[in-house]
Each structure stands twice: as C-alpha cells, then as structure tokens.
C-alpha cells in the first residue's frame, strides 16, 4: 500500500492573511506590484538572516530599512511588521481540523520569532512544523526542502505542498514535491478537490 499523502502548508498567504507585501509595495519607489515585492523579499539579505534566526529584531529593522531605502524609524517599522499577519483566513482552522484525521498535516514556512510568537507558535495545528527560524534554513533554498523531506522520512512524491510564492513552488517541485501555487483557503480547497483529497 502506498503511504497516504503528507499535506504541507505555507502559512502566510495560504492560511494566514498577510498584508506585508501590499504595504511594502506602497512604500517603495514606483510602487512595484506585490509579486515583485514578494520575490525581492525572498532574496533580501536582511530578511534571510532574520527568518533563519540569525539576527535579533532590532538588527533586522536597521538592516532592512537600509537595504530597502525606507525612511521609517526602526521602531515604527517593527510596529508595522508586527501588524502584517492579520489573522487566519476564514475557514483555515476548520480546513486543518477536517484534514488532520486523514492525513499527516504540517507546515513548511518561512517565519520569524516575532510573527511566530504572535500566533503562539501555532500550537496544536500541525503534526510537524518545518519553519525557517527554528531550522536555520529558508525557502526557496534546496536545503530547506531536503531537511524537511529527511525529517518526514517519506518519499517526496507523497508530499503535497501549498505555497503562495511561485519561487517556493518551483523550488518544492525541483525537490520532488507535488506543489501548488495558491492564495488563501478557497484556493487550497479547490486544489484538494481537483486531486481527490478533499
């Protein structure tokens, strides 16, 4: 018998509404679209170090503001940053509760100490948590996916992964996962129905 699927979810943009990219887009010269901001975020040196747990919030704020050319004070930026994740999308908690009895449900997400604490570490929602600032690794790097696959102890082909970033979706696919680009819970539900896992 083949093993049942493992369902892994990115958190921000998939289960939790994240206003960060739209907020950043309005602060940057030329107001680039959210997709461009999201790609830049994933390759930012300050973000990568903070979301791998390598630097404290104060250093992150200083470096991020300098790197992105923003004129906010570090204190104002951290206050804005804390407000970016607004809360779970309607239906997100019910979706996870519905799936957990049938599948291994985990998260595979970039995060940081500030946002993680805001949601109390997402306690009780996932069977396993593969999170950048706790692992010292970050998406879309191949080693983040390799470490996740190794810790799960399954063939990557049984892992179904949902992410709102095309960069991360491509990286997951390259690692052998069945990956889907989704934004919000409604999109997850549609994909689950299409692939027979609803």
Descriptive notes:
The protein has 198 residues and is α/β, with parallel strands linked by helices. It folds into 2 domains: 6-16 and 86-194, Rossmann fold (3-Layer(aba) Sandwich), CATH 3.40.50.1000; 20-83, Orthogonal Bundle (DNA polymerase, domain 1). 48% of the residues lie in helices and 15% in strands. The protein contains 11 helices and 7 strands. The chain has helices at residues 20-27, 34-43, 45-51, 57-68, 74-83, 92-99, 113-118, 132-135, 142-152, 166-174, 185-194; strands spanning 6-9, 16-18, 85-88, 104-109, 128-131, 159-163, 178-181. Strands 5-4-1-6-7 form a 5-stranded parallel beta sheet. Helix 1 packs across helix 2 (34-43), helix 3 packs antiparallel against helix 4 and helix 4 packs across helix 5 (74-83). It is globular. It starts with 5 loop residues before the first strand and ends with a helix.
Notable traits:
alpha/beta; Rossmann fold; DNA polymerase, domain 1; 2 domains; five-stranded parallel sheet; two-stranded antiparallel ribbon; 11 helices
CATH topology of the largest domain: Rossmann fold
CATH superfamily of the largest domain: HAD superfamily/HAD-like
CATH class of the largest domain, named Alpha Beta
Main sheet: strand order? 5-4-1-6-7
CATH architecture of the largest domain: 3-Layer(aba) Sandwich
The coarse silhouette is globular
């Amino acid at each position: 018998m083949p093993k049942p699927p493992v369902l892994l979810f990115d958190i921000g943009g998939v289960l939790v509404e994240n206003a960060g990219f739209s907020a950043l887009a309005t602060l940057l010269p030329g107001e680039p679209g959210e997709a461009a901001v999201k790609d830049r975020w994933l390759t930012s040196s300050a973000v990568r170090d903070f979301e791998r747990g390598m630097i404290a919030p104060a250093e992150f704020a200083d470096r991020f503001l300098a790197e992105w050319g923003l004129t906010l004070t570090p204190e104002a930026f951290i206050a804005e940053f804390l407000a970016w994740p607004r809360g779970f999308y309607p239906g997100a908690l019910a979706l996870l509760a519905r799936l957990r009895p049938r599948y291994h449900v985990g998260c595979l997400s970039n995060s940081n100490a500030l946002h993680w604490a805001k949601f109390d570490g997402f306690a009780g929602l996932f069977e396993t948590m593969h999170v950048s600032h706790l692992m010292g690794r970050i998406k879309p790097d191949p080693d983040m996916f390799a470490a996740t696959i190794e810790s799960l102890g399954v063939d990557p082909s049984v892992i179904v992964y949902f992410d709102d970033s095309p960069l991360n979706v491509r990286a997951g696919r390259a690692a052998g996962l069945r990956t889907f680009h989704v934004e919000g819970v409604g999109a997850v539900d549609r994909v689950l129905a299409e692939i027979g896992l609803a």
